[in-house]
Amino acid sequence: MPVWSDEGMWLLNQPPKEQLKAKYGFTLTDGWLDRAMKANVRFNSGGSGGFVSATGLIVTNHHIAADALQKLSKPGLDLYHDGFFAKEKAQELKCPDLELNVLQGIEDVTVRVNAAVKPAMKPAEAFAARRAVTGEIEKDSLAKTGLRSDVVMLYQGGAYHLYRYKKYTDVRLVFAPEFNIAGFGGDVDNFEYPRHGLDVAFFRAYENDQPVRPPHFFKWSEVGPAESDLVFVTGHPGTTNRLETLAKLKHRRDETLPYTLYRLRTLEAALTQYSNNGPEESRQAATDLHRVANTRKASSGQLQGLLDPQILKQKDLQEADLQNHLAVPVKPITPDPVRHWQAIAAAEKQYATFEKEHALLETGHAFFSELFTIARHAVRMGDELPKASADRLREYRDSNLESLRFQLLSPAPLYPALERAKLQTSLTFLAEVLGGDHPLVVLTLAGKNPAARAEELITGTKLFDVGERKKLLDGGSAAVAASSDPLIQLAKSLDEAARKLRTRYETEVEEPERQAYAEIAKIRFAAFGNSVAPDATFTLRLAFGTVKGYEVDGEKLPFHTTFGSAFARAKLMQNREPFDLPKRWRDGKAKLELTTPFNFVSTADTIGGNSGSPVLNRAGELVGINFDRNRHGLVRNFVYTEVQARHVAVHSRAVLEALRKLYDAESLAGELVGAK
């Protein structure tokens, strides 16, 4: 079995024990893995974190906490910008709609899923059979365990595992620093290194109004990592595309990513313009703007990677190498296995004929509005919930329903002017992409221009009222049919066309590709066993690497920065935004030990979704909190490299130094290190 450098976002039930033993002399035990699994936390807002005390304290990134910070803020109280600290548990702020998931176990259900799909089935029949069996598995698991249960596809269809999670929905904010230090350097330094960000936040999980006492938590290291140390990143990477075929990657390069970047730039410009209207507007739009800008920069880096001939050449060689293993006996194997690659190419060619309509209407890119999302769910729940759970669209199965209702009935504030600006922008984007005479555009705009249509929809809707939403959800199809709400009416009018596009995608693209990838996976397993990790799926993974700097244009970059270099960076940039340190930091400089390590890098394999992931040492102690990749790491969506690519993390010592010296948070620091 080959050792693949430090590559791999590994399944915890298929860990890289042999690789770690061979390369680093480290024995990865089942106990180590179990503790890491049950101390790790997944945020429903799209990030990771970990328990760090016996009384339910959780660490993550400030930018993962941003959604909660904004929802807890109000005019005159900007927690996102100014920060927050609860010195006592009674002062901790309950988040309106934050759900945390903690993995309890994984079960391989591949045989049961595959048995439901018969060889003679047409794509639509196969998709329906697979949807039904995965729905049954999830429902049975939920009934048996009471745990959130998700069947996750791995290896693009080569395997299926059942993940069971314990949920926490009473989550309270404990600490967040000012945005100016959490996101120091802003978009200029985003995906760059050296970095100087205190990108951390702390929450506490509660049950029955009492702090949770987790069975495992990560001990906070007061020392942190040294150069060349072996470290592990345990978190929930979102999506990678390393096992996709060359044809699929070329489709991303030529179709998906250019469209994505056009959309993100449009949204970013609109949100920036809205933010410039005043400080309150800036506060309201801050989370959306950060997410859009971050995704835009990441997507741009991915496109640059796919435009690099060397990257595609590497993928071509990998594909050829795998096809060279076709002589390896694979049972059962169909005649002419190369046709599986051809099937994926054909599916991508077919998808190009309706991808934009699918993205705009069914995925919802034409409706950048929380209120429209609520309206669509209300309409579809009325239609889906009378069906058996296994026959529903996936998001409405019993296993997902509680979490979905929790989000839809959130009391978090929504802002009419912001919703109107976002919807106007996305409706305009719809018309720009499809043309003013396209039937979907005509149906959506209903005889008005995007500005007037957005005004009509947002002014007329009652969905700002949580009570109104609850009536619709509880009342089902009858309540939806009786509703005159303009957003409900719009969602109803578009639903038939949206569902048709979804069905086309499922039967013409998703199912043929899934079947082809499943056959390719058989070849890969026969050739390489489990020495190749599956692509990321926002499920818990284990990555490993070493702490070390790298060289760029002849300059050697150190493995960590310091508080001193943060002040030097601010001075060099004349303390102008986004390099303006908070007043607390400027005034407190003399209190700090300026040689304290601030941010550090390692070769561990991370991606988006790993934000907030605990970085652990050999003993399983927390030595850092992952928050970013550098620009050289953006190609890791497609290929792994460790020459210059690094993930970036906040050093554990930096957090303690800042809490104790600047934030008057000795109680929090004491909880982290186990002080009584």
Describe the structure concisely.
With 676 residues, the protein is an alpha+beta fold.
The CATH topology of the largest domain is given as: Thrombin, subunit H
Which shape, going by the Cα principal axes?
A: globular
Q: What is the rounded Rg?
A: 25 Å
CATH architecture of the largest domain: Beta Barrel
Poorly predicted runs: 330-334
Whole-Å distance between the termini? Answer: 48 Å
The structural domain count equals 3
Average pLDDT, all residues:
96
What is the percent of helical residues?
A: 40-55%
- Total helical segments: 24
Main sheet record: 11 strands, antiparallel
Total number of beta strands: 21
- In terms of DSSP E residues, the strand content is 15-25%
| CATH class annotation of the largest domain | Mainly Beta
Plain-language structure description:
This protein has 676 residues and is α+β, with helices and mostly antiparallel strands. The chain has 3 domains: 10-99 and 169-241 and 533-673, Thrombin, subunit H, CATH 2.40.10; 107-167, no CATH class; 246-525, no CATH class. Helices cover 47% and strands 15% of the residues. The strands form 3 sheets. Strands 2, 3, 4, 5, 6, 7, 8, 9, 10, 11 and 12 form an 11-stranded antiparallel beta sheet that branches. The radius of gyration is 25 Å and the shape is globular. The two termini are 48 Å apart.
Task: Give the key terms.
serine-type aminopeptidase activity, globular, 676 residues, Thrombin, subunit H, serine protease, EC 3.4.14.-, single chain, eleven-stranded antiparallel beta sheet, 3 domains, 24 helices, 47% helix, alpha+beta, Dipeptidyl-peptidase
